[in-house]
Amino acid sequence: KKTLTVPHIPFLDEMHISEVATTLEEKGERRTIDSLNWREKFPYHPLTTISIAHSGSHIYIDFFVRCNYLRAVNYENQSPVSQDSCVEFFIAPNCDNHYWNFEFNCIGTVNASHRTERKNPTRLNDKELDKIKRYASCGTRPFNEIEGLFTWNLTIAIPLDLIGLKYDGSPINVKGNFYKCASATSLPHYISWNPINTENPDFHRPDFFGDIILQ
């Protein structure tokens, strides 16, 4: 399993979310989402990277994507954004089977829940979802699929207390994974940061999460 060490950058909280991406690229930790786990069925592999850091109160992630189809039909909280051009972050704060899934399409629409398995999620309410800062380079208006060569990024900030974590200056060990998918586009795909060894696409597998250390 892969390991990711997330640097502590306290002044991120002083910046507007739209300004964070450059700092994450310069001072954060960068990784590529490149595990093509179901290559025969879904060979398409859009370039996807993350730049990540934490402020002590939030986890900041900037997703960067280069792709050939762009779709953002879903615009309401808790709608099925994985059908669209979508990036995702799953985290198990206590390194067990309790995990949170945070899924975003390219206009920042969010689907997020607390789970122990794919079934029976405890969905975050609108007030909780509003605490997640988001900045989408594509804007926030929905649109049907378009074809071309696109680059886009989505910057997010997830409050640590939303997932039951408190930073006291000591490193925090968690587990998690990062994903890129788009199930309803003309080139559906399912790729991950940490590899997943299942027959069919399944991101809801804490047993395949990687190690993440918040410095």
Describe the structure.
This protein is mainly beta and 215 residues long. It is 6% helix and 43% strand. The radius of gyration is 16 Å and the shape is globular.
Topology:
Elements: E1 3-6, H1 20-27, E2 29-32, E3 47-54, E4 58-72, E5 86-92, E6 99-105, E7 110-115, E8 122-123, H2 126-129, E9 133-136, E10 143-159, E11 172-181, E12 190-192, E13 210-214
Parallel strand pairs: 1-13
Antiparallel strand pairs: 2-3, 3-4, 4-10, 5-6, 5-11, 6-7, 7-8, 9-10, 11-12, 11-13
Our Rg estimate from Cα atoms comes to 16 Å
Count helical runs. Answer: 2
Task: Give the oligomer, counting copies of the same chain as homo and different chains as hetero.
Answer: single chain
- The amount of helix comes to under 10%
Shape: globular
Average pLDDT, all residues: 97
Beginning-to-end CA distance, first to last residue: 19 Å
Major beta sheet, specifics?
Answer: 8 strands, mixed
Low-confidence stretches: none
Q: Work out the strand percent.
A: 35-45%
Broad structural category: mainly beta
Count of beta strands = 13
Order of helices and strands: EHEEEEEEEHEEEEE
